[in-house]
């Protein structure tokens, strides 16, 4: 036998010791593992089906969005409950419903489970501080509106409603304190905060804002600061909740102010030492029959340290500290008339001499009548939202006076979209109402540029109708080879214009090809009364796919 040197070769069979046994094995040890695998599989499969169902639901809701929008516009946002007057603006059904709900919620919170009249007064005081968190959270509404993704008008309505609600709650708080004989007029108590908030409410009346926007803005901010100081001194030392509300408001104010400062320094090139922007200002001057020179407008071209993206309809707040002795205290919003698909190296503005900073700039026209002047300038923005124009086949833009500046960038964008086949737009109609023919001189270059852009493949989708109230000898005067510009004497018949455009008959179509009418966009940048009139007209055409849009920034009339 061959031996490999192993004295005890391995046995052929395995014999276990009687005392040895395998550890007990139970089937339930495999159950968690199998159940986890089944649960993961079930969750994954369910997630896939839920995702597909959600996508299909969103697709269906998207198709119904237009219907919901029409119903909301027809029954909530466009019907008027309170018409515009000298004391307050237009109130739609939606405005009344939202404000009534807001008041009802605050009244409910004041009266819910109160044990005494004094307790209701204390709760009203705390609730006033809660309502003031939003108005105190930013120094400029434009920046706050951008952070929240809402329009400036919506942000101002919220700001105003919260401010008036806080004033009413504070008034109730003071009345309760007087009735309870716990009220005194020491500066350390409520008098300073209450007085400043009361003056702040009175100072917010539109007449003060129209009288001087800059004085109104600075006074508004100073009074708000006095209110915070007076309220802080009035609150008891041991009170935690009321002071917490003030801390939240001041914390939001500090955060938004820091973000705004960083954005300001970055956009104006001050972080990297590229130098501040320069404002090149030229003027449009009209000579009267008596050879008297009158400045009708100013064009500002801002040279930027680096390119900035500006959407159609956006505006900037401009600061030119060296324009005059007091111009360093003034900033003013202006619509950006230039537009580009990409970023812009320059921004162009059209300014009407009205009041404040615009008047200070016009005073330099006598020095640079035939040339231009240059100033150091800083700006914030661009601010505001831009209307989505990608789903409309026709657009009617209605403007009056210098408000045409808000319509120019939208026209540029839609003409570019037609030329590059990136938009559905097939027809553009600008209706511009002016008081005299002299007002058209300032925007003549901008309109000519639009007509020059609208020449690819002889599309000629842009038509301009200028209605002059006084000064024309003929009722209709066409201009150009294709008569795309017409001057009319008198005031437009907006009902007939909107009816004709909504019919779709003005859109050029290929012969023997059936084409859908498509949706129509009506954009408005006019005076308040005219805007209300157009809203009433458009309401009757909502079922035909017509949508009304008010441009983000409405420059002052002049």
From TrEMBL:
PROSITE patterns: FAD_FR (PS51384). It catalyses: 2 a Fe(II)-siderophore + NADP(+) + H(+) = 2 a Fe(III)-siderophore + NADPH. One of its GO terms (biological process) is copper ion import. The chain crosses the membrane at residues 38-58, 94-112, 132-150, 162-181, 187-208, 244-266. This is ferric-chelate reductase (NADPH). It is found in: Cell membrane. It is a multi-pass membrane protein. Keywords: Cell membrane, Ion transport, Membrane, Transmembrane, Transmembrane helix, Transport.
